[in-house]
Recover the amino acids of this structure.
């Protein structure tokens, strides 16, 4: 996380800082004003519009849904002792606070570099190379580009390792009846299985291996949309049965215990007949 923040801030300092501030402000305003329209956009009637939606919007929706069981179990495990409200708020706020500046600074710098001839992303735009090389093209154009590229490579590798570790832990917990500390052998086994599955999809797909992996994600992610919906309804029903109404409460709070006005008032002691 420290390397993530350092690389993001360094990109902001080395890149077009004023442009990034203006771009981020404009993008945030556009997202707020066009959120509903963008969420329901299907690309109908436009040339290649539907293909773009399938390749990006639908894919990333399915990706998040297919990843939800692993991420949910992992976050629940490391958040023991926290309230559900705190975990939900932190998960949404913390991830947004990290990803929005990253896409603004790194993505905005890449756009600026392409338009001003500082870096050339034409091969990526034309589809001759994959989008995964974009970061290296950008950081190569920076002063001390080798340092930036090495830091970027370490960061990507670290994210892959932690993601693989959390997914193997989640699968191991599910296959051992919810055991909080699955055996090392079990975790290694599932790590190998998940790695081989991804490798087989990449090999079978050949040059379009990434597309085969994307299709597998969409196929597995779509059913999880219904599973997540049922899980949310079940969770709300369980909370309502044990803690009272959880939807449309009279009072609400984000972090900590209930405020004094939300706590039930104790009945006054009965008067003494004597």
């Amino acid at each position: 996380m420290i390397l993530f923040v350092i690389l993001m801030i360094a990109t902001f300092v080395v890149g077009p800082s004023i442009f990034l501030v203006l771009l981020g402000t404009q993008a945030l305003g556009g997202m707020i004003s066009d959120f509903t329209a963008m969420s329901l956009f299907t690309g109908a009637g436009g040339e290649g519009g539907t293909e773009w939606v399938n390749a990006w919007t639908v894919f990333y929706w399915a990706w998040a849904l297919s990843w939800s069981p692993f991420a949910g179990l992992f976050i629940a495990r490391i958040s023991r002792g926290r309230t559900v409200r705190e975990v939900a708020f932190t998960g949404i706020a913390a991830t947004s606070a990290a990803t929005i500046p990253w896409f603004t600074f790194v993505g905005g710098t890449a756009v600026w570099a392409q338009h001003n001839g500082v870096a050339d992303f034409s091969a990526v735009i034309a589809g001759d190379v994959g989008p995964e090389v974009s970061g290296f093209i950008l950081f190569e154009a920076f002063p001390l580009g080798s340092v930036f590229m090495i830091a970027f490579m370490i960061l990507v590798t670290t994210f892959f390792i932690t993601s693989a570790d959390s997914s193997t832990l989640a699968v191991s917990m599910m296959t051992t009846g919810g055991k909080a500390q699955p055996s090392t052998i079990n975790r290694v086994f599932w790590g190998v299985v998940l790695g081989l599955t991804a490798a087989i999809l990449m090999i079978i797909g050949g040059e379009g291996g990434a597309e085969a992996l994307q299709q597998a994600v969409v196929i597995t992610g779509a059913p999880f949309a219904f599973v997540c919906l049922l899980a949310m309804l079940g969770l709300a029903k369980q909370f309502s049965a044990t803690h009272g109404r959880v939807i449309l409460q009279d009072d609400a709070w984000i972090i900590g215990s209930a405020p004094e006005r939300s706590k039930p008032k104790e009945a006054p002691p009965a008067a003494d007949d004597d």
